[in-house]
Design goal:
The complex is a heterodimer of chains A (about 150) and B (about 210).
Chain A lengths: L1 H25 L56 H4 L4 H4 L52
Chain B lengths: L12 H10 L1 E2 L2 E2 H25 L3 H4 L6 H7 L15 H5 L4 H20 L5 H21 L21 H13 L18 H15 L1
Antiparallel strand pairs in B: 1-2
Helix pairs in contact in B: 7-9
The chains are: A mainly alpha (about 150), B mainly alpha (about 210).
């Protein structure tokens, strides 16, 4: 009485599983993350080198670019290694540009001796400059005529 | 020989040493004892050195739970992962090469076992609480030894300033002129920095300079 029912359920489950696997395999086929066919080699991006010269700003408010590598610098809740050279208290010794004084104003405009919390994460605005082509095409025109 | 020694000439100095060397001490000859002693010594010293070097491996260092956080931080830095594939492992920076300093460092390190057992830094929070203290002890060591462990690999003598970044070349020249040491600028190159690290480092450096 029970056994045929149990066997039926098992058979149904097996059939469903196999059919599911088969359907999943045939649906869409395999694609790689970058959209290339799976047997097609994906060429790695070229490594671009740091530009070390100073660039003019393209618009007045543009955050100046960083002419050196910054990968190894710690910028987090505890420490900001950029300030080791660029804070007003160190810039002279290290012959580095001092932060703009706007970076020492708190959100209410009060002047402070320490860099403002709102300005703590340097690389939110300032980025290293490399000789790489633009990632996306754009129609940007600098504010100043060259 | 003993009965006619009174009327024979006493053997020469070298002969007496030679005879003494090969005459038995109890059952074993002195020569056997010396050679066996030498070989035994080689084995004992070699074994000691081997065991010491076994404690100088990454696997050994990171076999304690306490060392997982600083290991993770280290794996994101240039001394772990870089273009040339040359690495500096834990003991390259933390254990001196010279024998007397190495043994001292190993003896000092036995306190780490105690801290591993009582769990001084076994959570992230505890680790952060101790970060400055741990950094301070390494900075102090580096500053007082003129960054001895850095200089096992890095040397001003063989640095080509012309292929360094401009700012690095200028600062290295300045460091050379002013007698600065690696750790004076390069704190936190392999592990995370504590809050106010620069102020804290300056205090330590001033203390050491004043004590000189």
């Amino acid at each position: 009485m029970r056994q045929p029912v149990l066997a039926g359920i098992l058979a149904a489950a097996t059939t469903l599983t196999l059919a599911g696997i088969g359907l999943a395999q045939s649906a869409g086929g395999l694609t790689s993350l970058r959209g290339a066919a799976i047997d097609e080699p994906v060429v790695l991006d070229q490594v671009f080198q740091q530009d070390t010269q100073r660039f003019n700003r393209e618009y007045r408010q543009q955050p100046p670019l960083i002419p050196h590598s910054v990968e190894q610098y710690q910028i987090d809740l505890k420490a900001n290694q950029c300030l080791g050279c660029h804070d007003w208290s160190n810039a002279g010794d290290r012959s580095a540009p001092t932060l703009s004084m706007t970076h020492y104003l708190d959100r209410d405009g009060h002047e402070m001796d320490q860099v403002a919390g709102t300005r703590w994460f340097c690389n939110q605005c300032h980025v290293p400059q490399v000789n790489a082509p633009a990632l996306v095409d754009n129609a940007f025109v600098p504010s100043v005529a060259r | 020989m003993a009965n006619n020694s009174s009327n024979e000439k006493r053997p020469g100095f070298i002969r007496r040493i030679w005879n003494g060397f090969w005459s038995p001490s109890g059952v074993l000859s002195l020569g056997f004892l010396l050679i066996a002693g030498f070989l035994g010594g080689v084995m004992a010293w070699g074994g000691f050195h081997w065991a010491l070097e076994e404690t100088n491996t990454e696997q050994f260092c990171t076999s304690c739970h306490s060392m997982t956080k600083n290991w993770d931080e280290y794996t994101e830095t240039i001394h772990y992962n870089n273009h040339s594939g040359v690495r500096a492992t834990c003991p390259d920076c933390h254990v001196p090469h010279e024998w007397q300093y190495k043994v001292k460092a190993k003896i000092m390190a036995s306190k780490d076992l105690y801290h591993e057992i009582i769990g001084t830094i076994d959570t992230d929070e505890k680790y952060e609480d101790h970060r400055l203290k741990m950094a301070t002890s390494v900075w102090t060591k580096m500053k007082t030894t003129d960054s001895r462990e850095c200089r096992n690999c890095h040397s001003f003598e063989y640095m080509d300033f012309t292929i360094q970044e401009t700012r690095a070349a200028a600062d290295h020249q300045k460091a050379l002129d002013e007698g600065k040491t690696c750790i004076d600028c390069h704190q936190g190159i392999a592990h995370g920095l504590p809050a106010d690290y620069l102020e804290q480092y300056k205090l330590i450096a001033e203390g050491i300079e004043a004590a000189k």
